[in-house]
Amino acid sequence: MKIYIAYTGGTIGMVPSDQGLIPDAAFADHLTQHLNEADELSHDFVISSYPELIDSSNATPKDWQTIARDIESKWHEFDAFVVLHGTDTMAYTSAALTLMFAHSDKPIIVTGSQVPMYKVRTDAMINVMGAISACEEGVNGVYLFFAGRLIEGDRAHKAHTSDWQAFSSPNCPERGVLGIDWRWRSVELMKPPMQVLIPEMREGCVTILPVYPGVQASHWQGLLGDSVKGAVLLSYGAGNAPDKDPALLALLKSASERGVVIVNVSQCGAGSVAAGAYAAGSALVEAGVISGTDMTYEAAFVTLNFLIGLGLSSEEVKRRFS
Ligand code: ASP
What is the pTM of this model? Predict the structure, then answer.
């Protein structure tokens, strides 16, 4: 099997510096050495270190595009792809790749680690080996693999800063769990044909509107500037926000009328938005806010970027969301 491994940055390949951990340009060599030592692996690996290695907290939608274009350019040369990435924004990148390689007919596995590979007590090789194992099993599609769990790429959420299990899959069972062996969730095998769509991603066209006690229209005003075409509203509970402040609702309504697609996602972290179950949620529907149902906020944010990047009208973006 020919496996392409892209190292984009992130803790997995970081080393100490005076300012704290930074990505190491020599990481690809170290990883090659580790993989060569694992003699039960008989794959051809190509490991590519990106020219600009980043802490993934610096990632932007342009980086999702760069990774996708890189994979696309190597599509016919390789059987499987592993993306090594920082954990901070890994869930965003895996959601973006899921949309860009819809119904992928090859494995694309995104992983990283909580502790750098150079440390003795590290999860780096466990995660890399698990990702490779998922490729060997031929699980086609985009997934995030971490601490033994293979999570659908658009369902992952970074849920812990320091546990080995840094990711959760709040509203969807994992595709597989790797202990000594894999335990699989059975899935519908009939998949639509693969579709690769890598839009021209723009930075700053999607924002996040947090709801909190005492939130005021003036707090959101700056977030809904002219360049913004989409917004994720982080609501309470089953999709609620204060409905007693006319200025807040008027702001959402006017943004929505000028074509900003506003998607309602709960800040609960699990469960679904049931827009309209409460009067406080119905007011949002009246203001033109659409439901993100049980999406993570990462997936909602990425989906807006993706659909807007395709150049679709706001009506079409709304239609595809539902
Ligand atoms: N700040 C790091 C990054 O996201 C954290 C990690 O890799 O886990 O690149």
Answer: 0.97
